[in-house]
Amino acid sequence: MSSTEQGTSSAAPAEPTTAPESAAAPEVPESFYYVHGKDKVVHKVSAGALQHSALIHGMISNLGYTEEQAKANPFPFENIDGDILQMVVDWCNQHKGKPTPPEDTNLPKQKEKLFDLVLAVNYLEIKELLTYCCKQVAMMVKGKSPEEIREIWMIPTDAEDEAAEKEAKKRAGKEAAGETAAAAGDAK
Amino acid sequence: MPIRIFSIPAADFQYALHCMDIGDLIAFSLCSNRTKNLVKSSSRKIDPISAQIDENTILLKIEPNLQFLLREDSFSIELHRGNGIEIWRKPGFTQRDFIAHFLSISRSSIIPELRVSNVCSIPYLDIVKKIIPKCDTLYISHNCSSELTIAAVLKLGALTRRVRVDNDPFNNTNHHISEFLTLNLDYLHLSTFASRFNLELSDLLIANSNNLSVDCATITERELNRFLKLWIKGNHTFYRLKMIELFQWEPMKSEDVLKGIKFQIMDHKRRLTRADGEELLVTVGPGVVVFEFLSPQDLSIQ
Question: Where in the sequence does UniProt note compositional bias of the Low complexity kind (chain A) (predicted)?
């Protein structure tokens, strides 16, 4: 029921190409909102589907947009890749108005995008999808040895951790010294 | 496709840990000190390992379907988790380090149970002693030979707080029960009804464990009576005993056990009080004699 437009970079999104579901049209017309990610592609999503996202739901409640205003002002999520936002929107649409089952086979399975998906879903505060994503993250290392887990999850060795810690301390020391010098300069 | 796990928000990462099964969580904990600390600080509870000596191998069990076998090379461990065998190694890690790691992530300081459950060679016990740290209870199963049982208790007893022996190693051997009684343990339990343990007064006087329990003990009322009289007079130093529990085939006559001794009746027990304030509760029931030693400190707690 959602629609996607490609390549719209202006603030006002073009008319979505796909019409919303009409077969089971509710008695009260459903309101729609618009979101776009880093790629500026605008997605039309129903308010019902967006209820999964605590962040967007909160924004909608606070703004009180009319449909026209919503169309003119899509919610920008510049920190989310377009394809990831598409996944999220698809998931929200599939689960509009119904609770997510504990094991949802319809949810996205793209492991290569999982990390970005977790970050996006965490940002958008979609609790159920986040739960599933975390399970998927855990499943990535099922039955693996420590070496394999280190590789899959890019876990630094103890030596690398120590080196990073030293570097961070060094940087913090330099910054502190810089601040002290600046404060002394101001005092003069 | 790899992902940088530590870039995931902390709460989400904790939830991912929560979704992992215990074997995967242990594998993750072995990746680095950081991952070990993350597992330790997570809400997941990992059961402490129990160890089993089976022939000439040591098996570490965490869950019924999660077992590690210590291999002969002393640097690697073999993981059995349902669908096959994996070999795990960690640079710089010995098998002792693996055990210390498992105890650490289960937030335990000792192995709860070390079981000698099958025939192993006596020299192998020295290897066990080098690898296994402190244990709570050493179990010697019924199918161990007398020689192995005695060697296991004497060599490994120092690692443990409690010892339970499920066979009679003194039957038809040159060894005597006193070899076990002198051990400095919290609890010594000789647990078999297959044969009888013959005890004398001198055996009870050298008992050095806090708690001694003997199934199927054979001792006369007269010997027990002499033991009680020595205790009343206080002319023998009873350093550690808290309880002696003797299960017997032959019923005992409590009047013979307590002959010539002053006592008070307290419920079904007889209370003996010494001049220095120490007390001894005696229970003589059908098939059982129990002595409970109470110091003035114990009595003040009660």
Answer: 8-25, 178-188
pLDDT (0 to 100) of residue A9: 34
Tally Cβ neighbours within 10 Å of residue B294.
Answer: 18
Q: Does residue B54 carry a pLDDT above 70? A: yes
Q: Are residue B301 and residue B273 in the same domain, yes or no? A: yes
B9 reaches A (C-beta below 8 A): yes
With an 8 Å Cβ cutoff, is B184 touching chain A? no
Here the tokens at position B218 are: 């054979």
Whether A109 has its CB under 8 Å from any CB of chain B: the answer is: no
Which of B13, B30, B32 has its CB closest to that of A161?
A: B32
**Nearest chain A alpha carbon to B36:** A158
Interchain contact A112–B (C-beta under 8 A): yes
CB contact under 8 A, A137 and B16: yes
Domain hosting B242: range is: 182-302
According to the model, what pLDDT value does residue A166 have?
Answer: 92
- Hey, are the CB atoms on A143 and B31 less than 8 Å from each other? no
Q: Do B228 and B108 share a structural domain?
A: no
Instruction: Domain count for chain B, please give it.
Output: 3
Coil, strand or helix at B272: strand
pLDDT digits (tens, 9 = 90+) for B158-212: 999 999 999 999 887 788 899 999 999 999 999 988 888 889 999 999 999 999 9
8 Å CB contact of A153 and B2: yes
Looking at the structure, tell me whether residues B205 and B133 fall in a common domain: no
Chain centroid, CA A125 distance in Å: 8
Task: Assess A111–B contact: CB distance below 8 Å, yes or no.
Answer: yes
One domain, residues B201 and B171: no
Q: Is B66 on the interface with A (CB under 8 A)?
A: no
Q: What is the pLDDT of residue A104?
A: 62
**Chain B residue whose CA is closest to A111:** B1
Instruction: Note whether B56 and B20 are same-domain residues.
Output: no
Point out the least confidently predicted range of B42-46, B48-52, B157-161: B42-46
Same domain, B211 and B262: yes
Q: What are the tens digits of pLDDT across the range B249-262? A: 788 899 999 999 99
| Residues with Cβ within 8 Å of residue B47, at least 6 apart in sequence | B22, B62, B63, B106
A167: enclosing H helix or E strand: helix A158-187
Residue of B nearest to A157 (CA): B32
- Same domain (yes/no): B149, B249: no
Q: Which residues contact B169 (CB under 8 A, 6 or more apart)?
A: B145, B146, B147, B149, B150, B153, B175
Q: How far is B62 from A83, CA to CA, in rounded Å?
A: 43
pLDDT exceeds 70 at position A109: no
